[in-house]
Amino acid sequence: MVGTSSVRKILLLAANPMGTSRLRLDEEVREIDAGLRRSQHRDQFDLAQRWAVRPRDIQRAMLDVNPQIVHFSGHGGGPESLAQGRDGVRDLGQFSEEETPEEGLVFEDEAGQAKLVSGAALAGLFQLFAEQVECVVLNGCYSKAQGTAIAEYIPYVIGMNQAIGDEAAIAFSIGFYDALGAGRDVEFAFKLGCTAIQLEGIAEHLTPELLQRSTANPKSAGTSGQSSQSYVQSPPSQESNPIQKRLALFQTLLSLPGPQFEQLVFSLNVPRGNLGGASAAQGERAPKLLEWVESPIGCGLETLEQVLNSIIHPQ
Prior knowledge:
- A seven-stranded mixed beta sheet has the order 2-1-3-7-8-9-10, sandwiched between helices. It has a three-stranded antiparallel beta sheet with strand order 4-5-6.
- The chain is elongated.
- β5 and β6 (114-117) form a beta hairpin.
- It is of the alpha/beta class.
- It has two domains: 8-230, Rossmann fold (3-Layer(aba) Sandwich), CATH 3.40.50; 242-312, no CATH class.
- α1 packs parallel to α5 and α7 packs antiparallel against α9.
- The protein is built from ten helices and ten strands.
- Helices cover 38% and strands 15% of the residues.
């Protein structure tokens, strides 16, 4: 069963293959380790590290460590990461779209070169350890696709929906593990990790996504069930305090995945230019959307709630 041990073991897997841009993985690991060592519940965590990880090293580490939390740090690859590498950005940056068939994570081969591992392969591995692993963190670019596959079997998986820079990735890890070390749960730790990115003044706080295995129809080894879902706070339909209701609506807008936010904008028929354009960050567009909704020409909060509900909880 998940989390039966009094000590939660964290397995950290790091890979920065030759020919890829150099990442500050050592700094990220140092910050995670330091945060856990100084935390209130430091005796409840054991951090194991594996570097220059090859695919076979993953299965060996899983057997040796028996972790409850697995954290990957390194490069991700996807159609958006084209031929040029970018220092300090965790996309693969060296393959063309034809050579990179799917978004995912990059490990090393026997020669130390980049080796992309499919989401299906990792999901199959984590299916075997579903009874012990409670959370998987994929701190590399474009890792949401593999995270979704893994979340068929693991309660909580964190993946990135686009490229993420080193600074944002490190800030997220610091906030996430500081919260766990303080005794908070994964959902709170995820939110604090995203907030930590904002506090550093980095406009990438919407890049991490928390994927949860369905609590209604969990999928475990040998069974079928509902696919994972992104964590989105529901609209506050029963909230009576107008100020709290408005704040809760704003938080819901911030937590929406990008495609659902665009669906909301389209459904409300927001006049072009009111939100600053599709290229603007969601953190900038959300308050402008709320401002338009409450304006004399806007649709009103009640309509916003109804449309949000229909998007988050489709029939």
